[in-house]
Design goal:
The chain has four helices and seven strands; from the N terminus they run αβββββββααα. It is α+β, with helices and mostly antiparallel strands. A hairpin with a 5-residue loop joins β6 and β7. The longest helix has 16 residues. The protein starts with about 20 loop residues before the first helix and ends with a helix. Bound molecules: cobalt (II) ion (CO). Cobalt (II) ion binds next to α2.
């Protein structure tokens, strides 16, 4: 398992719902390991090349705090309140940061790795991470939500990622 970088098409493909969570117990563990190795706070299945609706996160980014880990399968946001701009990065866009507007408070419905339904309220940074990762499940990436100023500011960096990806995937 490794992290897929932009503009790999799997990041735009969207995902299908998970019927059987059993293969995800091991995969979610691998995703957490990869996320900690790369200093992330969240990772969505398309970012490891799998087009299924699963995301993992730990808002502390600290592997010594496994009690903060969350795995969401087939997540849905059932309500949202407030809006706030805040800076985000993404493991599929190394070195790129920009401001994204997200809801401040959300209610999330999902199933866990045992297939049990769960519903909870998330606020502030946790809500931001969930919204960022849920976008990945729908083929949306954070640069899509940048302000026009941030789109211009990061244009060269994004083009560099595109050039690098093309040269690594050139057909010969
Ligand atoms: Co991301």
């Amino acid at each position: 398992m490794k992290i897929v970088l932009y503009p790999d098409p799997v990041l735009r493909r969207g995902t299908k719902a998970v019927d059987d969570t059993s293969p995800w117990k091991e995969r979610a563990r691998e995703m957490f390991d990869l996320m900690y190795e790369t200093q992330g706070v969240g990772l969505a299945a398309p970012q490891v090349g799998i087009s299924e609706a699963v995301l993992v996160l730990n808002p502390t980014g600290d592997k010594e705090k496994p009690e903060e880990e969350l795995v969401l399968v087939n997540p849905r946001i059932v309500s949202r309140k407030g809006k706030e701009w805040g800076q985000e990065g993404c493991l599929s866009f190394p070195g790129i940061w920009g401001d994204v507007q997200r809801a401040l408070k959300i209610v999330v419905h999902a199933i866990d790795l045992d297939g049990q339904p769960t519903e909870f309220v998330a606020e502030d940074f946790l809500a931001r991470v969930i919204q960022h990762e849920m976008d990945h499940l729908n083929g949306v990436v954070f640069i899509d939500r940048f302000s026009p100023a941030d789109k211009i500011r990061t244009r060269n960096q994004i083009e560099e990622l595109e050039d690098r990806w093309r040269s690594q995937h050139a057909s010969r």
